[in-house]
Write a structure and sequence with these properties.
The chain is α+β, with helices and mostly antiparallel strands. The chain has two helices and six strands.
């Protein structure tokens, strides 16, 4: 994903969950200064692992986005529930 420079004090990460019509959106905020953004669209080993686990749990029913924001680095994962999981 990225490499960030830690601040002088303890770093506090934030995770927010918000319901969607048929799923959930999770937003993770990693504060501090972004030293080097993603080197490639595929990312590194850690990012590939996260995407593989998302695909394993929610095949074809997830999105992953990340970007630099003034507060640091934001990652957003949206999970859409499959009909089988909704009980339909």
């Amino acid at each position: 994903m990225l490499h960030q420079q830690a601040g002088e004090q303890a770093t506090v990460f934030s995770l927010f969950g918000a319901p969607l019509a048929e799923g959930m959106r999770y937003t993770f905020l990693s504060p501090e200064i972004v030293r080097s953004p993603v080197a490639s669209a595929n990312g590194g080993t850690g990012l590939r692992y996260i995407k593989a686990r998302l695909e394993e749990g929610w095949p074809g029913n997830w999105t992953f986005a990340q970007r630099s924001v003034p507060e640091g680095w934001e990652t957003v994962i949206e999970l859409r529930l499959q009909r089988e999981r909704l009980g339909s």
